[in-house]
Amino acid sequence: MAKEKDVVKKKTGDVAVFNQMEEFETTGFEGADYESYATPFLRILQQNSPQVLEDSENYIQGSKPGLFFNNVTNKIYGKSIGVIPVRFERMFVEWKPNREGFVALHDVEEGLKISDPGKVFGSRIHTETENVLQDTHTFYVLIAGSEEEGPLVLPLTSTGIRHSRKWLSMARMLRLPNRSPAPLYSSIYNITTVLNENDQGRWYQVGDKSKTTIERLDWITEEQFGYVKQVIKMFDKIKEGMSQSAGFERGAPY
Prior knowledge:
alpha+beta
């Protein structure tokens, strides 16, 4: 029987082995395409989110309404978080009626073509199936300071769309030192959740009717730009994997 100290020693690993791993050509991931991985979403926990309900199997220790979290790693980021928006895309997410499940993603042209205006703000109704098509402003972001975690999908729907528009307008007006238009990914932004209330309920969003809680912090660094370029190169694969993803959640109807 191995001694306890020997077991502990084996668990800590061997530097020589790590060096060999770095030099070895095979990683074991060669057979996995992007669809093989779960697409991480940056979500805002709400009062009815399973992650905040202690009697739910999806409960996350320390979670509270209003906090950002990664739906793949279950990492909690807090109510404020610094992000680098690498790319923006507007799309329509199709849902079955009565919140029965995700159906498909549509680009703007297709979504408008197959639908009529819905009764709920930010949604449309499929003309043939009567499924709901939810207008979704989607940001592909890197977490500032944790860029190695890779890109996350940040979808803003319903009342979140007004804040998305302000964010895009803010970024579009930004100029580089030579006065040329700055790319969307040129800056780090701090986004903060605040509580919203109306006669339909209470929810957290990146702003309320009076303000948008998105603030530009600074330019990205050269190192961060390296991560940005990696995301841009693999964007098509990210989107391909996202189209098969269950990471989208039906937004609140307000």
